[in-house]
Amino acid sequence: MRILIAGASGAIGRPLVRQLRANRHEVFALTRSPDFAPLRKIGAEPVFADALDAAAVKAAVGRIRPDVVINELTSLPQHYTPADMKAAAERDRKVRVEGNINLLAVLRDVGVRRYLLQSSAFWYRPGAGLADESVPFISTASPKVEARARTYSELEARASATPGIEFVALRYGFFYGPGTWYTREGDMGDQVRQQRLPIIGEGQGVYSFVHIDDAAWATAAALECPPGAYNIVDGNPSPQHVWLAAFARMAGAAPPPRMSEEEALRTSGPDAVYYATRLRGASNEKARRELEFRPRPLEWI
Predict the structure, then answer these.
(1) What DSSP state is assigned to residue 108?
(2) Backbone CA torsion sign across 50, 51, 53, 54
């Protein structure tokens, strides 16, 4: 297949290009950087266009005429801290929303049959047990969590309403592994060693992770699956107090400090409290069934 990836230089983009090339697909990478060498090095043919420039996107996709477009567009900071995430939030939303609009606008005209979109498995409405893909996203939460959930709902709704394409929403868990925040050498490893990541309250918020290479494998498998939404998560959903303590041990850090919800609200804000105490894990049963997805166990549990 001829496959165009928007966001190929991001954390999942690089392993995804390698996976697709290993599967003998022809891979093109939409990029606004004039330095094409890194993309060519991993096996992608660069296509110069800014995803926020509708005319440039239309021209680029029209030249390539891919069978499939994969949207992995993000604009996330190097450091995963409340301050850095706040500073990056508006740019990240703009890239995701406008990039999605610009890509969807040209798909039907150039014969693209399938559209894969990066979505998220950690915005599900709180409730009992793991969330499957039928559970709605959060509608009421801390302000920024609510806003992010609304963004993903809008992204999926717009793609789902686009006629003439097969749409797949890839609801990834928290990425870990090479090139991500969650590694011993990455930003989160540094933060646990610096005692900057506390267990908040009882730490009962449930996180679903996925190794970056497993996420890339599942994305490649989604080229042929029935359209719809899929939770791309491992089978080890863990409450914050469990995974964070184990992650600290793996990173060579002291046990994480503990902090009350009241103190965390003052020092880190309501979003940090929401993640630590109310987050709901996701079920990968559908992906296991439809994609034959067999992710590795969470490596530090």
Answers:
(1) G
(2) positive
